[in-house]
Amino acid sequence: MDKPTIFISHITEEKEIAKTLKEFLDKKFLKTVNVFVSSHEESIKLGDDWLSTIKKSMKDCQLIIIICSPISISRPWVNFEAGAGWVKDIPVIPLCHTGLTPGKLPVPLNSFQGGLLNNQDDITKVFSRIAELLNISIPDTEGKDFFEAVNSFEVKIQSGLLIKDTAFIYNLLYRQIELLKYSIYASTMKYELLGKIDIQNESIQNHNLNFNDTYNLFNVSLLMIHTQKKVFQVYHKDVHELVDNIKFLLSYNGIQIAPAVRELLNEMLFSVVKVDDWYDAINLMDRQTENKLREISIDMIKNEPLPPTRRSSNIINNYIAYYESLIYYQNWVVRFETEISNILKK
User: Fold this and answer.
1) Where is 178: in which H helix or E strand?
2) Which residue range(s) make up the domain with 62?
């Protein structure tokens, strides 16, 4: 009589954990069941037709185990194999790992009763199902080496996911971060000095912010994407666009975000008031050309004793708020880029 076949479905990146599960089942069931893993040399031998062998194993199997992770559930092949099991009325058991739980499985995988790969109680349930096929008692699920191997693999996968998603976060926010740095430089530098700054390679941390130089906020932007916009207008718009992108990131559950990075992103969400506080007043003064409010403002900024001091009902207060927001965002950019760099260096 042929041995019952268990088909373990997995993606290439997770062949290590699929092989580990196969070897654990082989050991515990004393090879009384045929465990098929496409990436294992015992399942597909050199010279075999890979696709035909997989199709035959799926056709002959009595149980399908799907190795599910945040990566694998997005792959069509895994969903195809789960669907094939459902069509043929073959029991399908999704085993989740690396932060994914059965409750988070998408359709059609969430229609099957699943478990956690690193949970001994859930592995016991899998053993019980296999024992039913063999009409034998359930073997013990003690396996320190197996569960340690699963945990070790999860750490490796999570680290890889974190690096990949951190790179995605960096790339998504890159344009707004560079515009933010430009706004900080342009708010405090004359045109001739600004043109000498290599924003992409220069560390914003080294830029000395001086309140008396912030009159440059009234300069017209040199950026082609913001023609005829004043520097303060570019600055205000960019912060809002940056916050919108961050809202998207934080609302998307499929992204791994390091705790320190998440904290910085949340901090940025609540910082938008720092640019809204001064924007309307400065925008109004920029438009008042007849009474020369702009020229008066520039003189006040240039001649304000340092450190600048707020005064009751004085327009200087708006420019002090502007200056303080520059200091805040300079510090935020430095902290954000440091955290991103530390993760990507790994």
Assistant:
1) helix 144-187
2) 5-142
Residues 83 and 229 in one domain: no
Residue 126 lies in a domain: yes
Same domain flag for 130 and 179 = no
Domain count of the fold of the chain: 2
Q: Are residues 301 and 215 in the same domain?
A: yes
Among 19, 2, 20, 39, smallest CA distance to 133 is for 2
CA neighbours within 13 Å on the CB side: how many for 337? 18
Q: Which two tokens stand for residue 155?
A: 């750490």
DSSP state of 25: H
pLDDT one digit per residue (tens) for the chain, 346 residues: 578 889 998 888 888 999 999 999 999 998 889 898 876 444 444 444 445 656 666 777 889 999 998 888 888 777 777 777 787 888 899 999 988 899 988 888 888 999 999 999 999 999 999 999 888 889 888 888 999 999 988 888 777 777 888 899 999 999 999 999 999 999 999 888 877 877 777 888 999 999 999 999 999 988 777 778 999 999 999 999 999 999 998 987 778 888 899 999 999 999 999 999 999 999 998 887 776 888 889 999 999 999 999 998 788 999 999 999 999 999 999 999 999 998 888 6
Query: CA–CA separation, 198 vs 142, rounded Å?
Result: 60
In a domain, 147, yes or no: no
pTM of the model: 0.65
Distance of CA 298 to the CA centre of its chain: 43
212 close to 304: Cβ distance less than 8 angstroms: yes
Q: Is residue 184 part of a domain?
A: yes
- 236 and 340 both lie in a single domain: yes
Tell me the C-alpha distance between 331 and 271, whole Å. 12
